[in-house]
Amino acid sequence: MGACGITSSKTALVFLNLIFWAAAGVLCYAGAYVFITYDDYDHFFEDVYTLIPAAVIIGVGALLFIIGLIGCYSTVRESPCGLASFVFILLLVFMIEVAVVVLGYVYRAKVEERVNSSIQGVYDEYNGTNSDAASRAIDYVQRQLKCCGIHNYSDWTHTPWFEGSKNNSVPISCCRPDLETCTGSLTRTEDLFQEGCEALVVKKLKEIMMYVILAAVTFATIQMLGILCACAVLCQRRPASNYDRLITGETYG
Questions:
Q1: What is the pTM for the complete model shown?
Q2: Distance CA 227, CA 94 (A)
Q3: According to the model, what pLDDT value does residue 146 have?
Q4: Which among 198, 153, 199 is positioned nearest to 172, based on CA atoms?
Q5: Which of 26, 31, 76, 142 could form a disulfide with 58 if both were Cys (CB 3.0 to 4.6 A apart)?
């Protein structure tokens, strides 16, 4: 019964270590995705501390590769020292991931407030040239999120760019992609995206933070299973005491 139990625990642990390697790749991808996406939206949310959870899960992902190696080696060799180290590192990573979840929720709660306070300034900086970072950011967001203006296209009429251009139009990035003849003219508002960008930017940034949170929670759960399996192997491999031998009927040589 004991041999069957330890074999099952070892098999489960080896399988979990393979999952750790896959998880490492997923976590690194999730962290990199947050960095890349933040670069597209950083004009609307200039709090670089938001990247801390992403940076942490990239570090955790790299550490999981090493954990997988230690876990596989220690499981196959049934090394008590290796398995104990494996459990300790997993517990450490688990606590880090709990911190990531907490930070993720903290920064996710700040997104709306930060975007609301900065978005008007970004639109005021728009000058319509591709060389200007704020202009590129706004054009990118309007095309990607299919939106126009802060609350709707009429917000453009209050910007310095609109007042300077004097052509009664909004940027071409406000035009619906299925209408090639759209020029951004406010005389044909049906050709423009009707929804404002503020709510959509907030939604997008919150989704990004939620990806980080879900990734951390999912792999923290898997790590707990790994800890339980490693502890099971450790407990089943401990030397039998004199009392255990007496109960099981073993004789002393």
A1: 0.74
A2: 10
A3: 94
A4: 153
A5: 31
pLDDT at 242: 44
Q: Which residues of the chain have pLDDT under 50?
A: 1-3, 5, 239-248, 250-253
- Long-range CB pairs of 88-97, under 8 A, 24+ apart, other chains included: 89/63, 90/223, 90/226, 90/227, 90/230, 91/227, 93/60, 93/63, 93/64, 93/67, 93/223, 94/220, 94/223, 94/224, 94/227, 96/56, 96/60, 97/57, 97/60, 97/216, 97/217, 97/219, 97/220, 97/223
- pLDDT for 86 equals 77
d(CA 155, CA 136): 18
The total of other beta-carbon atoms located within 10 Å of residue 163's CB is 9
pLDDT of 204 reads 87
The closest alpha carbon to 120, from 69, 154, 161, 155, belongs to 155
